[in-house]
Design goal:
The chain has a single domain (2-212), classed as Aminopeptidase, CATH 3.40.630. It is globular and about 45 Å long. It is an alpha+beta fold. The strands form two sheets. The protein has a seven-stranded mixed β-sheet, sandwiched between helices. 40% of the residues are buried. Helix 1 (8-16) packs across helix 4 and helix 5 packs across helix 8 (200-212). The mean pLDDT is 90. The protein has helices at residues 8-16, 51-59, 70-78, 87-98, 138-153, 165-168, 177-188, 200-212; strands at 2-3, 20-23, 31-34, 39-41, 63-66, 102-109, 112-122, 125-133, 157-161, 173-175. It contains eight helices and ten strands.
Length: 213
């Protein structure tokens, strides 16, 4: 399945049906749609924070912001030798962000964006898209803060699309498509709160993960 135009509407439909888009290349306008089997997910109750990362988190080297600069976060994710994030992907997800359905978690230092991630939020599901870091552990710090926020907000599903070696370190697993569809349906039947900027629940979840994972 291919398309050359993304909109908030067709992105919402796709994610609600277990499908996600990727560009052919950074310079192409072609979009391919994927529905992998098996599917990667990161169970929120089994999230693991590696020991070395716990030390970084305790030092708090970065200022963590939510939706501080969504477009710049996407640009950071796209700034690599080979990428599927083309102009059409950027435009479509920025439109989704403006609709309140896509978010970024960012690490800043000295007024500069040094790492982060972005993804899509539908009901009690969060679909992770991409992450980047130009300073040590910045994307990993953003991931921990994302998971803390999802835990605190009552999310049921964190979709990672594929269980890469990097994500497996944090507890990601692969599940059959049929099982993924069941988990997705349950998450879309629920509700969750993403914005808890200064909420005690986020701080408690973060403290729990850094002490006991």
């Amino acid at each position: 399945m291919t398309a050359t135009r993304l909109s908030a509407r067709n992105l919402v439909w796709a994610y609600a049906n277990g499908i996600f888009p990727m560009g052919r290349s950074a310079t192409s306008t072609r979009i391919d749609w994927y529905d992998p089997d098996p599917r990667g997910v990161l169970p929120l109750d089994a999230f693991h924070v590696p020991r070395s990362l716990r030390k970084t988190l305790r030092r708090s080297p970065y200022e963590v912001r939510v939706d501080g600069d969504f477009a710049a976060t996407m640009a950071g994710c796209a700034a690599r030798g080979s990428t599927w994030i083309n102009d059409e992907i950027v435009r479509g997800y920025c439109e989704l962000h403006e609709a309140g359905l896509a978010h970024s978690v960012e690490c800043w230092r000295g007024g500069k964006l040094v790492g982060g991630l972005y993804g899509v939020h539908l009901k009690a599901a969060f679909f992770g898209e991409s992450m980047f870091a130009i300073e040590t552990d910045a994307s990993k710090v953003a991931l921990v803060h994302l998971v803390a926020r999802l835990r605190a907000g009552g999310f049921l599903l964190l979709d990672t699309q594929m269980a890469t070696d990097h994500m497996i370190r944090f507890g990601a697993v692969e599940i059959p498509r049929a099982e993924y569809r069941q988990r997705l349906a349950a998450a879309l039947d629920g509700d969750a709160v993403f914005y808890r900027e200064a909420g005690a629940e986020v701080l408690e979840a973060l403290q729990s993960m850094t002490q006991t994972s």
